[in-house]
Design goal:
Blueprint (H helix, E strand, L loop, with lengths): L42 H56 L3 H12 L4 E8 L4 E4 L32 H4 E5 L5 E10 L18 E10 L1 H52 L13 H84 L7 H31 L5 E3 L1 H11 L1 H6 L2 E6 L7 E3 L1 H17 L5 E11 L14 E9 L6 H4 L19 H11 L3 E6 L5 E8 L10
Parallel strand pairs: 7-9
Antiparallel strand pairs: 1-2, 1-5, 3-4, 4-5, 6-8, 9-10, 10-12, 11-12
Helix pairs in contact: 1-2, 1-4, 4-5, 5-6, 5-11, 7-9, 9-11
This protein binds adenosine-5'-diphosphate.
Length: 579
């Protein structure tokens, strides 16, 4: 048993089950590119991908509609063609049917079945049996009138209709070898003259004689829409790529590039680099953004610059003030020490002075009463000499005490005169101790604001200490020059002091041990035996030089040399007058 479609499964009208939705299961989905689970892309890529997607969608939709319309048109053409063929077949077999020439009819059906595009030709009798077929082996077989292709006419209750609308006569089916075909049936009605062959009665007795079924191959007709589909897909892809690429380039050039420039300018400024001007570009909105960005960056740079300037000047001011404070503090400490020492010294000196004067006076008087060559005379002279030495120490103490209380008069002076006087005063000591003195003082040294007597006192102290440190002879070297503050170690002096007259006093004596280096300027610090040193020389000298706005530095290797460096601020020299 075969069905009119040629196989047992009808292919048209198969319903696609609708996708079932799940009401209530739709959750609030996060929005945004990233929440879609898509990788983070640049703006230009996003625009290109999004636009490409929608262009592809639109072109694909349009192509689908066009291809469907084309398919329908092609189908209509095929149906029309099959009708023409069927008409031609009916006309051709009409004579053989009238004369009941079955062999001629069979040959004709077989010959027409080989025609290009015709897949099969069948003629059924009114009982549904195949009377003639382009495939002769089918002849005599009966078709199932309940098959989908037959129910158009064989609904069961009503008699089969003789005239059918063209749309109801056609069906699409798949042949056993898998080919898609269009089948069209034609009712062969009993007309006047048909009974001439003697096979059946007049039309009044029998309306239908049979059915012509022409099967047309659909493959050639389908080739056209398929080719059109391929072209449409290729055009869609090309259009999508072109539009996406164009958008990518435009967005990248007009939007992304200026934004990238702004980002790198911001990063550069954040890293402390110089500010960068961002070009305003071709797109007006981006241009406005770039202009306001540039304004912002310029404003930021200038306020940053102001802040930096302010910070650095503040730093400088703080360091100057800190130095001044340190200087003032150490001066106060030193002054306090000296002041208290001065008060004590003045009291002691005053108390000792009267009895000492009495001792000296009475010793002198008693010495006049004893013979000059007697032992008593010599003893009295020694008492008188030692008492005088004590008196000298007391005078020194009184001087020291007075120095703490009154400000000496200062004036612009050259150091050479004080130096010469000091050396002159110590001539005898220098000669006795076999010390070689070398002095190198340039003539053109700037003046300093000092008290000459006090400066001489400082030099005397330094020279005397040096000579005493070289009991077996040695070398005392005195040099002077003008030094720039920046070439010296950090000094606790006011910041405005930039140039100083530097006097170095260097000897090849016993040196000063490292722990003592910080103590030699303390009042009463001495390493000399009792009666040889008071420990006041260097502290008085430091007080004097600090009074001139300078300081004294000391350095020694602790065994073979000592160097004192006296630093006094140099006065600005007036420019030489033209002669
Ligand atoms: P005095 O000379 O009365 O001891 P100073 O204040 O002048 O008091 O000196 C303090 C100490 O510094 C000295 O006792 C000595 O130890 C040390 N001193 C000073 N100058 C020198 C020097 N040129 N060489 C070695 N030691 C020195």
């Amino acid at each position: 048993m075969v069905n009119p479609a040629g196989n047992s499964e009808p292919v048209q009208g198969s319903a696609v089950p609708a996708e079932s939705g799940e009401p209530g299961t739709r959750s609030a989905r996060p929005s945004g590119w990233r929440r879609l689970g898509l990788p983070v892309l640049t703006l230009s890529t996003r625009v290109a991908v999004t636009a490409g997607f929608f262009v592809l969608l639109s072109v694909a939709g349009l192509s689908f509609l066009l291809i469907r319309a084309q398919r329908e048109q092609v189908l209509a053409e095929v149906i029309h063609g099959s009708e023409s063929i069927a008409q031609a077949i009916l006309l051709s077999i009409d004579r053989d049917m009238r004369l009941n020439q079955r062999d001629g009819l069979r040959e004709l059906v077989a010959a027409m079945g080989t025609h290009a595009g015709i897949a099969s030709i069948r003629i059924y009798n009114k009982d549904g049996r195949i009377s003639f077929s382009s495939r002769p082996e089918e002849e005599g077989e009966r078709v199932d009138t309940r098959a989908e292709a037959c129910v158009q006419c064989h609904s069961g209750t009503t008699p089969p209709a003789v005239e059918l609308a063209p749309a109801r006569r056609s069906r699409i089916y798949r042949s056993p070898d898998g080919e898609r075909r269009l089948g069209t049936i034609y009712v062969i009605a009993n007309r006047d003259g048909c009974q001439d062959g003697g096979c059946h009665g007049p039309p009044s007795e029998q309306r239908l004689l049979g059915v012509l079924d022409v099967g047309m191959s659909r493959e050639p007709a389908q080739a056209r829409p398929a080719a059109a589909s391929r072209s449409a897909i290729l055009i869609s892809l090309a259009a999508t790529l072109l539009i996406a690429a164009a958008l990518f380039l435009i967005v990248r050039r007009s939007v992304q590039r200026p934004i990238n420039r702004m980002v790198s300018a911001t990063r550069r400024i954040a890293a402390g680099g110089p500010s960068l001007h961002v070009p305003e570009g071709a797109v007006p909105e981006i241009g406005i953004l770039a202009a306001s960005f540039n304004e912002l960056i310029e404003g930021f740079s200038s306020s940053n610059q102001k802040l930096e300037d302010w910070a650095s000047s503040l730093e400088e001011k703080v360091s100057v003030k800190a130095t001044e404070l340190r200087t003032a503090r150490s001066q106060v400490i030193q002054a306090e020490k000296l002041a208290s020492v001065g008060v004590v010294a003045a009291g002691i000196a005053h108390e000792l002075n009267s009895p000492l004067m009495a001792i000296i006076t009475f010793t002198h008087l008693v010495r006049g009463t004893v013979p000059p060559d007697s032992r008593a005379f010599e003893d009295l002279r020694m008492i008188e000499r030692e008492a005088n030495r004590c008196a000298a120490i007391i005078r020194q103490l009184l001087d020291f005490s007075r120095q703490q209380q009154q400000e000496p008069e200062k004036h612009a002076s050259r150091i050479s005169s004080s130096l010469d006087k000091a050396l002159d005063l110590l001539k005898v000591e220098v000669r006795n101790s076999e010390v070689a003195v070398q002095v190198a003082i340039p003539e053109n040294l700037p003046r300093v604001n000092v008290n000459d007597g006090q400066l001489m006192q400082v030099f005397v102290n330094l020279f005397l200490n040096a000579v005493q440190a070289m009991p077996h002879g040695g070398e005392l070297r005195v040099t002077a020059d003008l030094a720039a503050r920046r070439d010296l170690p950090p000094l606790e002096l006011p910041a405005e002091v930039r140039k100083l007259v530097r006097i170095t006093v260097r000897d090849t004596g016993t040196g000063i041990k490292r722990p003592d280096l910080t103590r030699v300027f303390d009042p009463f610090f001495t390493t000399k035996p009792p009666g040889k040193g008071s420990g006041l020389g260097l502290s008085v000298s430091m007080g004097i030089i600090q009074g001139f706005g300078g300081t004294i530095l000391v350095d020694s290797d602790g065994m073979s040399w000592t160097q004192f460096t006296v630093l006094i601020p140099a006065l600005e020299e007036p420019a030489p007058q033209p002669v």
